[in-house]
Design goal:
Elements: E1 2-6, H1 9-18, E2 27-31, E3 37-46, E4 49-58, H2 60-66
Parallel strand pairs: 1-4
Antiparallel strand pairs: 2-3, 3-4
């Protein structure tokens, strides 16, 4: 099962904590031709399945390039 969050890293973190997925389980990556989108991924057991949390947000460098404060 997967829960995806777009532009809301706080929701990702709240679900991660509520599901007792440790901070050390979070993986960071970027995507897009110019790495303008960052993503966070974490997985943990939930009942008989594996739950994946995925968050997408503009990368800090992308925000600086557009003049939006991070």
């Amino acid at each position: 099962m997967e829960l995806s969050f777009h532009d809301d890293l706080g929701a990702f973190e709240a679900w991660r904590a509520a599901l007792a997925i440790g901070p050390d389980a979070v993986r960071f990556g970027t995507q897009g031709a110019d790495d303008s989108t960052m993503n966070l991924r974490a997985e943990g057991p939930y009942g008989a399945c594996t739950l994946s949390l995925v968050a997408y947000a503009p990368a800090p460098s992308a925000l600086l390039a557009t003049g939006v404060a991070a």
